[in-house]
Design goal:
CATH topology: Alkaline Phosphatase, subunit A
Number of helices: 13
Number of strands: 14
Structural class: alpha/beta
Radius of gyration: 21 Å
Helix content: 25-40%
CATH superfamily: Alkaline Phosphatase, subunit A
CATH class: Alpha Beta
């Protein structure tokens, strides 16, 4: 057994903080993640520093906010060369580094060119067809995404998209691919295979593995029988409706039409939610396979396991789906640590997020960072020596003219929107579902937290939000999305 602890980072995509039983969801069955949480610490206030896929993953990779990691707060951006990168850091420390699943490191490499892996020595990718869509839309080549190639070898080539729904399409459907060939199963299967190969060949070398599941990101397409695990009639309905958005970001009200959500019936939303939770439970099942393998090989007690997600999914709340906003369903993510260095157990109210993962696992594993990060180590919380390590948590999202920011404290959530200078304020203790915007009635709290945001932005070099010494305001009429576009859905890539 390696003297230094292994590190297993497990991530989901579009996983809401409150989608897990261990985070208080009474409806969803997640026994394996519940068991992991019981062994360690669950940050019930876990957040993403940027609720979009690419920047969220850049924050995990670097420990920094996206305006520093890539210079871009939108769903793009090359991770800068001067950044510490989680895989490269552990490789330099002598770890074997492997990634399985969705990295979403952009730009994607064309056929025949080296992949952008930011320090991973070995990677097997499932990018949900994005690389194929960019360079081979009919799926005729091999070598772009390993999952796509493997499905062809198994006689199921192309069938992962045979249900006809696309990557950003909320219309639910059962996968045409049997459960054992589904991409979630593949991530677990290939993670186990790579772990087994490493432990057989180099049992004394610690490993760093990122097992990156692609779900429950749309399409909500669990394989049978997981598609029928939850009765849509019994699923709790979403929070609020679109009529409650009148005093909030004007962009919200355009999303429904842009993505066709306004055409979904209430029953259609319920069915989408039921399929989403089927994906959650299916992912939990596959995480259990990886954890069981580590236990069988005697490595579980020597492996730091982290579970989180790049962001959440509104899942019908306020008539909307997906992310790119500061509602709890979008910005809140699960964050669980277990294993060596995690002496505490149970839930903590400490404010923490994805940028804390790198500094935390670096300290807990005994592999100190070569330079400081904007994230902070949560090791004191994990050891039981502290109840919390920050007074407020900041999240940022999108570039001008559509910048959005959040300041979260133990009681309040303040949100600022560049479009129209719209402000939101919620008492998250009394109004966890964020149904009542108090920005118009609690001016003293708004003023205080607005000041916190401005101080943070100045101290951390996020100057794009300023104009004339104050927070930037752009005209509301810029909140325009040009209608429904099938291309957004990722239909018929291959």
């Amino acid at each position: 057994m390696a003297d230094r602890p292994n590190v297993l980072l497990i991530t989901a995509d579009h996983m809401r903080n409150d989608a897990l039983a261990c985070n208080g969801n009474p409806f969803v069955d997640t026994p394996n993640l519940d068991a992991l949480a019981a062994r360690g610490v669950t940050f019930v206030n876990g957040c993403t520093p940027n609720p979009i896929c690419v920047p969220g993953r850049a924050c995990i990779t670097t420990g920094n906010y996206s305006h520093v990691a890539t210079g871009i707060k939108n769903n793009s951006g090359y991770i800068r060369d001067d950044q510490t990168k989680i895989a490269a850091h552990f490789a330099d420390a002598g770890y074997a580094t492997t990634a399985i699943g969705k990295l979403h490191y952009v730009p994607y490499s064309p056929p025949g060119k080296p992949r952008l892996l930011h320090g991973f020595e070995h990677a097997e990718l499932c990018e949900e067809g994005r690389i194929i869509g960019a360079f081979d839309p009919h799926g005729e080549m091999s070598g772009l995404e390993e999952y796509h190639d493997w499905l062809h070898e198994q006689g199921w080539g192309g069938y992962e998209r045979a249900h006809g729904t696309g990557n950003n399409d909320v219309h639910p459907a059962a996968s045409a691919v049997p459960a054992e060939f589904h991409e979630e199963s593949w991530v677990a299967t290939r993670s186990i295979a790579n772990l087994q190969e490493h432990l057989d060949a180099s049992p004394d070398q610690p490993f760093f593995m990122w097992s990156s599941f692609t779900k429950p990101h749309a399409p909500y397409d669990p394989p049978r029988p997981w598609d029928a695990m939850y009765d849509p009639r019994a699923v709790a309905p979403p929070v609020g409706d679109v009529s409650m958005l009148d005093d909030r970001d004007p962009m919200y009200r355009n999303w429904q039409v842009a993505y066709g959500w306004d055409k979904l019936s209430p029953e259609g939303v319920q069915n989408a939610r039921a399929h989403y939770f089927g994906m959650v439970s299916f992912q939990d099942h596959n995480i259990g396979r990886i954890v069981s393998f580590l236990q069988q090989r005697g490595q579980l007690d020597n492996t730091i396991i982290v579970y989180s997600a790049d962001h959440g999914d509104l899942l019908g709340d306020f008539g909307c789906f997906f992310k790119c906003n500061m509602f709890h369903g979008s910005v809140g993510v699960p964050l669980i640590f277990a294993g060596p260095g995690v002496a505490a157990q149970g839930q903590t109210q400490a404010l923490a997020g994805l940028q804390d993962i790198l500094p935390t696992v670096a300290e807990v594993s005994g592999n100190s960072l070569p330079q400081s990060a904007m994230g902070i180590s949560q090791a004191p919380v994990l050891s039981g020596a502290a109840d919390g390590t920050r007074e407020y948590y900041i999240s940022q999202c999108m570039d001008s003219p559509n910048q959005r920011y959040m300041v979260l404290t133990g009681q309040w959530k303040y949100v600022y929107h560049e479009l129209g200078g719209v402000q939101e304020l919620y008492d998250v203790v009394e109004d966890h579902d964020e149904q009542v915007n108090l920005a118009h009635t609690r001016g003293e709290v708004v003023s205080e937290l607005r000041g916190v945001l401005m101080d943070w932005a100045r101290e951390n070099g996020d100057e794009q939000i300023f104009e004339g010494g104050d927070l930037k305001v752009s005209p509301e009429e810029l909140a325009v999305i040009d209608g429904f576009q099938a291309g957004r859905m990722g239909w018929r890539w291959y």
